[in-house]
From TrEMBL:
<comment type="pathway">
    <text>Amino-acid biosynthesis; L-methionine biosynthesis via salvage pathway; L-methionine from S-methyl-5-thio-alpha-D-ribose 1-phosphate: step 4/6.</text>
</comment>
<dbReference type="InterPro" id="IPR036412">
    <property type="entry name" value="HAD-like_sf"/>
</dbReference>
<keyword id="KW-0028">Amino-acid biosynthesis</keyword>
<protein>
    <recommendedName>
        <fullName>2-hydroxy-3-keto-5-methylthiopentenyl-1-phosphate phosphatase</fullName>
        <ecNumber>3.1.3.87</ecNumber>
    </recommendedName>
</protein>
<dbReference type="InterPro" id="IPR050849">
    <property type="entry name" value="HAD-like_hydrolase_phosphatase"/>
</dbReference>
<keyword id="KW-0486">Methionine biosynthesis</keyword>
<dbReference type="InterPro" id="IPR023214">
    <property type="entry name" value="HAD_sf"/>
</dbReference>
<comment type="function">
    <text>Dephosphorylates 2-hydroxy-3-keto-5-methylthiopentenyl-1-phosphate (HK-MTPenyl-1-P) yielding 1,2-dihydroxy-3-keto-5-methylthiopentene (DHK-MTPene).</text>
</comment>
<comment type="similarity">
    <text>Belongs to the HAD-like hydrolase superfamily. MtnX family.</text>
</comment>
<dbReference type="GO" id="GO:0043716">
    <property type="term" value="F:2-hydroxy-3-keto-5-methylthiopentenyl-1-phosphate phosphatase activity"/>
</dbReference>
<keyword id="KW-0378">Hydrolase</keyword>
<dbReference type="Pfam" id="PF12710">
    <property type="entry name" value="HAD"/>
</dbReference>
<dbReference type="InterPro" id="IPR017718">
    <property type="entry name" value="HAD-SF_hydro_IB_MtnX"/>
</dbReference>
<dbReference type="InterPro" id="IPR006384">
    <property type="entry name" value="HAD_hydro_PyrdxlP_Pase-like"/>
</dbReference>
Length: 216
């Protein structure tokens, strides 16, 4: 059995959500209403995240990156988890609704760029716009932005055991298609409501220990 792990980034690999941290530090107050609408699924992720970044002036690009890269904390156990992934020859990809300008540098030296799927921030205009290189295919109508089910259809073999790791509404659609989910935060509530098999986690040590038990 081949195990293929798709792992969220913000609030999962990192201790907090980087988009939320960025908005708290740099965006005007109206970002809060947009954030709440996204989490309540009142607007699509693509629409909401696009509107959030449109609140940020492009001229502060360096400040945004430095703020996140300098303060970021990886969730405990992540590097050890990656070592375990390599030792067991599991497939591992990061699927993130975050932006390339902070996801890539934070994961540099840990995860190869060919295994990182995220959105792309465009700083060429007055405010930040978002390119969506992994938008929904014709099998998804949720306007996900970074569509994790679409990515899975491209890179996960149908015979693989799909493991999803995440924390939020952005992971819900791919969680529905997983063989098993490791969940934090809002994703726990969504998995419970949908009857999706999952285990809660606080650190990647929790996941490593559990995976060793269920994949033997």
């Amino acid at each position: 059995m081949t195990v293929h792990i798709l792992c969220d980034f913000d609030g999962t690999i990192t201790a907090e959500d980087n988009i939320i941290a960025l908005m708290k530090a740099f965006a005007p107050p109206e970002w809060v209403e947009l954030k709440d609408a996204i989490l309540a699924q009142d607007i699509s992720i693509r629409s909401g995240v696009g509107q959030l970044f449109d609140l940020l002036p492009s001229s502060e690009r360096t400040a945004y990156r430095d703020y996140l890269v300098e303060r970021i904390a990886l969730r405990p156990g992540f590097t050890a988890f990656l070592a375990d992934v390599r030792q067991n020859e599991w497939h591992f990809d990061v699927v993130s609704g975050g932006m390339d300008f902070f996801v890539q540098p934070i994961l540099d030296g840990l995860v190869g760029s060919e295994h990182i799927f995220c959105n792309v921030a465009d700083f060429s205009g007055e405010t930040v716009t978002v390119a969506w290189p992994h938008a929904c295919d014709d099998q998804c109508t949720n306007d996900c932005g970074c569509c994790k089910p679409t990515i899975a259809r491209r890179i996960v073999d149908s015979n693989d055991r799909l493991i999803v790791i995440g924390d939020s509404v952005t992971d819900f659609e791919i969680a529905k298609r997983a063989d098993f989910v490791y969940a934090r935060g809002q994703l726990i509530t969504l998995c419970e409501a949908e009857g999706i098999p999952f285990a809660p986690f606080e650190t990647f040590h929790d996941i490593t220990h559990h995976l060793q038990e269920v994949t033997v």
